[in-house]
Design a protein that fits this description.
The complex is a heterodimer. Chain A is mainly α. Chain A is built from eleven helices and one strand; from the N terminus they run H-H-H-H-H-H-H-E-H-H-H-H. Chain A is globular, with a radius of gyration of 21 Å. Chain B is of the alpha+beta class. Chain B has a single domain, classed as Alpha-Beta Plaits. The longest helix of chain B has 11 residues. Classes of the chains: A mainly alpha, B alpha+beta. Chains A and B meet through helix 3, helix 7, strand 1 and helix 8 of A and strand 2, strand 3, helix 2 and strand 6 of B.
Chain lengths: ~300, ~210
């Protein structure tokens, strides 16, 4: 699949926002955290959600009709996401202003629902075998929560310094779990055998079929939307890049960065950059069966 | 099974790969009520645009025992279309009365999710209108009572010089398409995804030449 920057930004930004909110809510519920810490964290979370929402509009050919996307919630996970995202933003804002535990609980339920909707958009497509796995949901949840956890540490340094240490430890642990789960998905996908072949695509039962023409010499939607268009070495390099950026580097900064604000900000920046690469790879790795029909121009 | 399901049956044994179905499809659907399909830079270096139908060519086997298969490809109007339930706006739908899968161009937001959900790559985003487009089985032709009855067929079927394209109701066991599927060994593409394509293909056949 072709990685779309609009969708990469949407999923990584809202993932970090959701993770940050869950961490702050948990801290606020278990101990009386300073009001400033909770409020500023919620504002940061909301800002990330707004940024993600704006990015998502760039994915649409007809953004002025986006409101229509709320209508098919009975069947479409995309439609459900379109409903749950603004609902979560609204409850998050109410919680930030009122501090009401009920608003917090409702926002948390919507936050989890949003993770499920986002993950299912990809996991529900049966023939995109790389995405068709519970690990897709698990990784959207874990990677989002890990990045939100890391983001909570510099915020704690500013507004809740005595709790920055435990949060850094939590960010370290969550990062490790997310990293391992992502590796599990890599291992799973490396073993996949494509169910569709040229033989099933054109219905000719023969082991040797070669495309000689795809029907046109120029490009088309089919040759652009479903191919990442980069050499294999770029895809392999991106995998190594995100594996290092998502956990080992930020973990080192969290644990051995001297506990300074700059080190924690850098830890989040590196991890977020890693997640952008991770999401790029997530799309590039997925092989759409329609590509079987577009192997040779002539 | 009782309701009507219109579909094409494409005979790979007689398709000669002339692309007449491609050009007649483009011509008819550029003149219809939805307005012209994008046809960008048609005589330039990098021609683009949207098409509902393509003819591809595959070579099967190893020289000298090779066989050339010309393979027309358009929306298969699946009986269980994976592109329909994923649409967030309801623009993508399957008609109850005749099984044609259509896009309401006025509701489509161009999110491309339906194209991701189609294993066949049957949908193309119109690069100018920014909405998803696909084969309509010439829905604006086949019911047009101003046309003589024999012309109420999809443009691609009308254009085919070898009669490789048949059109009819695959749920009516006595229709020309049902008979062709039954007697000619008609098959569906990528059966592994259980989309139940309504369009079927007839396989290449060995013809014995007797002196």
């Amino acid at each position: 699949m072709k990685p779309a920057w609009s969708v990469i930004l949407l999923t990584t930004l809202i993932g970090a926002a959701q993770g940050l909110f869950l961490v702050v809510l948990a801290v606020d519920a278990s101990r009386s955290a300073p009001r400033d810490f909770v409020f500023v964290s919620c504002v940061v979370s909301l800002a990330l959600l707004v940024a993600g929402l704006i990015a998502s509009f760039f994915h649409l050919g007809r953004p002025e009709r986006a409101w229509r996307a709320a209508s098919q919630w009975r069947t479409s996970w995309l439609s459900r996401e379109v409903i749950v995202l603004p609902a979560f933003m609204a409850m998050l804002a109410i919680y930030a202003l009122s501090g009401s535990p009920i608003a917090g609980a409702v926002a948390a339920a919507l936050c989890i629902a949003l993770f499920v909707c986002t993950g299912m958009i990809y996991a529900c497509l049966p023939f995109l075998q790389e995405w068709r796995s519970p690990l897709t949901l698990v990784n959207f949840f874990l990677l989002g929560t890990a990045s939100g956890f890391t983001l909570s540490v510099p915020l704690a340094v500013l507004f809740y310094p005595q709790f920055a240490g435990p949060l850094a430890l939590g960010a370290f642990g969550m990062g490790a779990i997310a990293w391992l789960a992502r590796i599990a998905a890599l291992v799973r996908n490396a073993r996949l055998r494509p169910k569709s072949t040229l033989a099933t695509a054109i219905g000719v039962d023969h082991p040797r079929i070669v495309q000689k023409a795809q029907g046109f010499m120029g490009g088309s939607f089919n040759t652009r939307e479903f191919f990442h268009g980069r050499p294999d070495r770029v895809v392999r390099a991106s995998r190594w890049a995100f594996l290092i950026l998502v956990f080992p580097l930020p973990a080192w900064l969290l644990g051995w960065g001297g506990g300074s604000l700059q080190a924690f900000v850098a830890a989040f920046a590196l991890q977020f950059a890693g997640l952008l690469v991770e999401r790029w790879f997530f799309f590039a790795e997925a092989r759409h069966p329609q590509n079987l029909y577009y192997q040779a121009a002539s | 099974m009782s309701k009507k399901q219109l579909a094409l049956v494409i005979d790979l044994n007689v398709c000669v790969g002339c692309h007449a179905c491609v050009t007649s499809c483009k011509e008819w659907n550029s003149a219809g009520e939805a307005g012209p399909m994008a046809d960008e830079n048609p005589y330039g270096k990098d021609p683009g645009g949207a098409f509902f139908n393509r003819v591809q060519t595959f070579e099967v086997g190893e020289f000298p025992n090779t066989e050339t298969v010309h393979f027309p490809k358009s929306c298969l109007h699946c009986e269980d279309p994976p592109c329909v339930p994923v649409c967030p706006t309801g623009a993508s739908y399957k008609r109850a009365e005749d099984g044609i899968v259509l896009v309401d161009y006025d509701k489509c937001i161009g999110c491309k999710y339906c194209a991701w959900a189609c294993p066949y790559g049957a949908r193309e985003l119109d690069p100018r209108e920014k909405v998803m487009t696909k084969c309509t089985l010439c829905v604006d032709r086949i019911y047009d009572e101003l046309l003589p009855p024999q012309d109420r067929q999809p443009a691609c079927v009308m254009a085919c010089p070898t009669n490789a394209r048949l059109f009819g109701d695959v749920h009516d066991p006595e229709s020309v398409v049902s008979k062709a599927i039954r007697e000619g060994g008609g098959y569906a593409l990528m059966p592994e995804w259980e989309t139940k394509p309504a369009n079927h293909y007839l396989p290449r056949r060995k013809t014995e030449y007797k002196e």
